[in-house]
Specification:
Layout: H1 7-16, E1 41-45, E2 48-51, E3 56-59, H2 74-84, H3 95-106, E4 113-117, H4 120-135, E5 139-143, E6 156-157, E7 164-165, E8 167-168, H5 175-178, E9 181-184, H6 189-198, E10 203-209, H7 222-234, E11 238-242, H8 254-259, E12 265-268, E13 279-283, H9 285-288, H10 307-320, H11 325-347, E14 352-356, E15 359-363, H12 380-392, E16 395-396, E17 405-406, H13 413-431
Parallel strand pairs: 3-16, 5-9, 5-10, 10-11, 11-12
Antiparallel strand pairs: 1-2, 2-3, 4-13, 6-8, 7-9, 12-13, 14-15, 15-17
Helix pairs in contact: 2-10, 3-10, 11-13, 12-13
């Protein structure tokens, strides 16, 4: 099949490279892991996006997840437009903050008090500081394959061995910062136990993505997550669920409800603002009492709780909290994935689809995958072909085989059937 025209996108990309490092404002957008130049998106509506060349795509990237209601949702747009008439930023409290906070706390058993931020990265960074301030300890345990934003202490990768100090995975991160983060493999109880023994009395928190979904979809067993919770309690450390992807996506209460486990601190991202720049962290009244101005853990933000994001969040979460929303969305997504799985099984392809709620991930393998180490980097060559073939058929996924896909409430059976056909055709090329 002939490749779609990307002439205007390519022209814009060449120009953007004179303004931005790599021509982008976030690295994965540069399309380095797939074929061709980046698509410059011109508009989105419902389940569709259009690029600068006028190509239309059914979108399963959803701005990397938060657009659970699809693009340009009418209720969100109207609420934001209404609120914007009165101004867009005050750096002062508004009643909108109270309204969104009440909507969240009344429908979420896992937080008693919250603090809004301007991004998921900021929320996680603040949660880590809060954990250290609350416990008086220094070390953080994180897991290889879990991404928690680009703050210095978490932008680390595993070294060699069962339990290691993190090694910086970015220039500009001091070794001293990385040394406060212990990186271990997922799904390894012995590594967790050894880490707590090795750094006895100095582990402030264990942080894990609610369901790891930034490096493939690494679904952890119930028993393992319960083990993490129990181990943290036994060692007077806090368990932090980073729910920037899973929060309000697998359900209103996210992975915490999925596992039935109460994290000590939980973080959320753009989905609570209908896709606008916003984040949030929350915990019990006791823990949150340590946040300034009540306590000594300082965190601030001029745009925290800004009226535009709050308005979008109120509109979005009102819909998400309506009866049956997640049951309908998740059933639709699972039916779509089941049809794909049936086709893959019938064809005998070496391909598995991992799925939870309305999230799914293609893994070109025949084995179960629970850790980052289980993923074969060579399998990404197949994803590159699949990605190109899907673009040519009007289907858009994030430009990396390590990224997951999302079904939104805006996808109707019409779009899902078109996508299914396109995926079948693309896989014929991949495995042909």
């Amino acid at each position: 099949m002939q490749d779609i025209s990307r002439a205007k996108s390519a022209e814009l990309y060449e120009k953007s490279k004179t303004y931005f490092p790599g021509g982008v404002n976030s690295p994965v957008r540069a399309f380095k892991s797939v074929y061709g130049t980046p698509l410059f998106i011109q508009k989105g509506d419902g389940p569709y996006i259009w690029d600068a060349d006028g190509n239309q795509f059914i979108d399963f990237c959803a701005s990397w997840g938060p657009l659970i209601l699809g693009h340009n949702n009418a209720e969100i747009r109207e609420k934001v437009t209404e609120v914007m008439q009165n101004g867009m930023s005050f750096g002062a409290p508004t009643a909108l903050e109270n309204e969104l906070a009440e909507l969240i706390i009344k429908n979420n058993r896992f937080v008693e008090k919250i603090r809004f931020t301007s991004s998921g990265t900021e929320a996680v960074m603040s949660a880590i500081r809060l954990a250290r301030g609350y416990t008086g300890k220094n070390k953080i345990i994180k897991f290889e394959g879990c991404y928690h934003g680009h703050s210095d202490s978490l932008l680390v990768k595993a070294g060699s061995g069962l339990v290691t100090f993190g090694e910086t995975s970015s220039a500009g991160v001091p070794k001293a910062f990385a040394d406060e983060t212990i990186v271990i493999a997922l799904n390894d109880k012995n590594a967790v136990t050894e880490a707590f023994a090795q750094f006895k009395g100095d582990v402030a928190a264990v942080i894990i993505e609610g369901i790891p979904a930034n490096n493939g979809l690494l679904i952890q067993d119930q028993e393992y997550v319960e083990f993490l919770s129990e181990t943290c309690k036994a060692n007077a450390a806090l368990l932090i669920f980073d729910e920037v992807i899973t929060g309000f996506r697998v359900g209103f209460e996210g992975a915490a409800a999925h596992y039935g486990i109460k994290p000590d601190i939980v973080t959320y991202g753009k989905i609570i603002g209908g896709g606008l720049p916003v984040g949030m962290y929350g915990a019990s009244n006791e823990i949150m009492a340590h946040v300034s101005p009540d306590g000594g853990v300082y965190q601030a933000g001029t745009l925290s709780g800004n009226p535009v994001a709050m308005a979008a969040g109120i509109a979005a979460l009102t819909i998400l909290s309506s009866e049956g929303f997640y049951e309908q969305l998740n059933a639709k997504a699972q039916a779509f994935v089941n049809e794909l799985k049936s086709h893959i099984s019938e064809k005998g392809y070496e391909l598995k689809i991992f799925t939870v709620g309305s999230i799914f991930w293609f893994a070109f393998t025949s084995k179960d995958i629970k850790t980052a180490e289980d993923i074969d980097p060579a399998s990404m060559d197949k994803f590159k072909i699949m990605h190109r073939e899907l673009l040519n058929r009007g289907i858009y996924f994030g430009p990396s085989g390590y990224e997951v896909g999302f079904v939104s409430a805006a996808h109707t059976q019409v779009e899902l059937d078109k996508a299914k056909t396109a995926i079948f055709e693309a896989l014929e090329v991949v495995f042909g």
